[in-house]
UniProtKB/TrEMBL annotation:
First-listed, main subcellular location of the protein, grouped into a coarse class: membrane
Source organism: Tropicibacter naphthalenivorans
Recorded family membership: Belongs to the glycosyltransferase 4 family. MraY subfamily.
Biological function: Catalyzes the initial step of the lipid cycle reactions in the biosynthesis of the cell wall peptidoglycan: transfers peptidoglycan precursor phospho-MurNAc-pentapeptide from UDP-MurNAc-pentapeptide onto the lipid carrier undecaprenyl phosphate, yielding undecaprenyl-pyrophosphoryl-MurNAc-pentapeptide, known as lipid I.
Reactions performed catalytically: UDP-N-acetyl-alpha-D-muramoyl-L-alanyl-gamma-D-glutamyl-meso-2,6-diaminopimeloyl-D-alanyl-D-alanine + di-trans,octa-cis-undecaprenyl phosphate = di-trans,octa-cis-undecaprenyl diphospho-N-acetyl-alpha-D-muramoyl-L-alanyl-D-glutamyl-meso-2,6-diaminopimeloyl-D-alanyl-D-alanine + UMP
Transmembrane annotation, as ranges: 20-44, 65-91, 97-114, 134-152, 172-193, 200-219, 239-256, 263-282, 288-311, 338-357
Keywords: Cell cycle, Cell division, Cell membrane, Cell shape, Cell wall biogenesis/degradation, Magnesium, Membrane, Metal-binding, Peptidoglycan synthesis, Transferase, Transmembrane, Transmembrane helix
Co-factor(s): Mg(2+)
Record's protein name: Phospho-N-acetylmuramoyl-pentapeptide-transferase
Name of encoding gene: mraY
Pathway given in the UniProt record: Cell wall biogenesis; peptidoglycan biosynthesis
Positions that bind Mg(2+): 192, 267
Annotated Pfam families: Glycos_transf_4 (PF00953), MraY_sig1 (PF10555)
Length: 360
């Protein structure tokens, strides 16, 4: 919205700053951060009053989690409110990729909110049916995949770009839409599975979003793409503003989610943020790089898949408990130890993902 202040500029005054994506990204970050600090405590108080007993705790979960009973959930509302407000304020609202990513984020937040509400109101861990969640998730992701394909350059539309191999494109034709659906839905559910310890999910989300935001900015500038030998996707640079809003809102949330958490993000936040990561990857043609940058989420999801399949086949478990962060809890690792080590791993993976921009 504030971008339109550039119409008041003569090219050499303060209003000219609003032309620059980096300036507006900084503004989005600060706006989201202030939003989080201002509304965090009031939101937590409202959630505590409305939810009473807070988020239900799994009876078969780690013993240390029972002390968290009564902690309110749906804290993702704080992150979503912060990033949506900052994006609408600072991004160019004539950019289709901004609206595509916002669409996925808000739609997945609504699915997560319905799931959280069902759990809290029933006071059990059974929320919205998994089949219903997946069906709605795939529909939303299908719309987003088709949306992105319409605004990709003709030479990239419905193509799969491979990291490292600069001139290699795989023509997926209309199979690109199902592929994009899998990327977005998989990302949303992987982040959802990771959100099991205080502060565990939000920092890797911020790290991955920052990385993808940098990639979006790079592939949206023709001079950067020529230097880096990556595919140019006009318009994606504006996604950096959205990414900055995620980081600012995430930090505001982490202030209250740091151990011991005063609030959980719930499915409202985890599904929305995971879906946003997938949507950014699809928009920027870096779907495979998301698997590297978000490698921690991939491992968390794979640990659940492996556990379920192996147990059905043999009646035995590979891990003491899945997702894998619970496995380390069962092994006796302290919660902060797991969280901080997983943060370190996510940062390393983000650096590797960024390196794919230059390794060609």
């Amino acid at each position: 919205m504030l971008y339109w202040l550039t119409e008041l500029s003569d090219g050499g005054d303060f209003f000219n700053l609003f032309r620059y994506i980096t300036f507006r990204a900084g503004g989005a970050f600060l706006t989201a951060l202030v939003f989080g600090f201002l509304f965090g405590l009031p939101l937590i108080n409202v959630l505590r009053r409305k939810q009473g007993k807070g988020q239900p705790i799994r009876s078969d979960g780690p013993e240390g989690h029972f002390v968290k009973a009564g902690t309110p959930t749906m804290g993702g509302l704080l992150i979503i409110g912060a990033l949506v407000t900052s994006t609408l304020l600072w991004a160019r609202l004539d950019n289709p990729f901004v609206w595509m990513v916002l669409f996925v984020t808000i739609a997945y937040a609504l699915i997560g909110f319905a799931d959280d509400y069902a759990k809290v109101s029933k006071q059990n861990t059974d929320g919205v049916s998994g089949k219903v969640r997946l069906l709605l998730g795939f529909i939303i992701a299908g719309i987003a995949g088709f949306w992105a394909a319409q605004y990709h350059p003709s030479e990239l539309s419905y193509q799969l770009a491979l990291p490292i191999f600069k001139d290699t494109l795989i023509n997926m034709s209309y199979f690109f839409i199902p592929f994009a659906m899998i990327v977005i839905v998989g990302s949303a559910n992987a982040v959802n599975l990771t959100d099991g310890l205080d502060g565990l999910a939000i920092m890797p989300v911020m790290i991955a979003t920052t990385t993808l935001g940098i990639i979006a900015y790079a592939v949206g500038r023709v001079d950067f793409t020529e230097y880096l030998d990556v595919h140019y996707v006009p318009g994606t640079g504006e996604i950096l503003v959205f990414a900055a809003g995620v980081v600012g809102g995430g930090l505001g949330f982490l202030w209250y989610n740091a151990p011991p958490a005063a609030v959980f993000m719930g499915d409202t936040g985890s599904l929305a943020l995971g879906g946003a990561l997938g949507a950014i990857a699809v928009a920027t043609k870096h779907e495979l790089v998301l698997g590297i940058v978000g490698g921690l989420f991939v491992v968390e999801a794979l640990s659940v898949i492996i556990q379920v399949l192996y147990f059905k086949r043999t009646g035995k478990r590979v891990f003491l408990m899945a997702p894998i962060h619970h496995h380390y809890e069962k092994k006796g690792w302290a919660e902060p130890q797991i969280v901080i080590r997983f943060w370190i791993i996510s940062l390393i993976l983000a650096m590797i993902g960024l390196a794919t921009l230059k390794v060609r």
